[in-house]
Amino acid sequence: MQNFNWKKYLWTFLITVAIFVTAISLSNYFNNRKIDSLREIEDKISTDIMSSETEYDLLAESSCKDLSEDVLSQELNALAQKLTYTEENFGKNSPDLLRLKTYYTILQIKDYLLMKKISLKCNTKPVFILYFYTADCQECGQQGYVLTYLREQYPNLRIYSFDYKLDNPALHTLISLYKVKETVPAIVINDKVYNGFLDKDKLESYLPAWMITTATTTVSKK
Description:
Elements: H1 2-60, H2 73-90, H3 95-122, E1 127-133, H4 140-153, E2 157-163, H5 169-178, E3 186-189, E4 192-195, H6 200-205, H7 209-221
Parallel strand pairs: 1-2
Antiparallel strand pairs: 1-3, 3-4
Helix pairs in contact: 1-2, 1-3, 2-3
């Protein structure tokens, strides 16, 4: 009887060890897959940023007839999608996500500066919205949905979103220039700062009248 119990406990121990080792091996395997996937994303984003920086230089030297108001939007949107994927798969506090978010922030600021120069050079009329949020902001998610809706309604509206707490010198300078307070959500519309949540109607009231008229006319024609 004692021999039987000894064998039973031994087998139980061996099975437990086998399960534990298998679980550890599977965990390491999937973690390595995630790391490899993230490295691929980082390499692609690094290439995209180098390409976009070169494109900025080319566009700055281009004539107005070669430029369009949706320039570089595809690059920004593609990078935003990669950030969303990384956030969903690696967590909001991942150091790698913060690094990618920094890339995205710099790219947005460069696009913003370029589009301001283009608007002056080519007499175009884009309206700029700078949106500042934080990860722990309760109303920021709702504000993001409102801004997404407006982007879809008004083609000339260019919206840039920034994590207020991101530690980046360029972002700090942008915040300082517009004197954006830490009360988020915060929105800058054509250089004027608005703190706190703004619903659709309120935001639309701050847009130029010509933009509202143009969007309404376009919808009517459809």
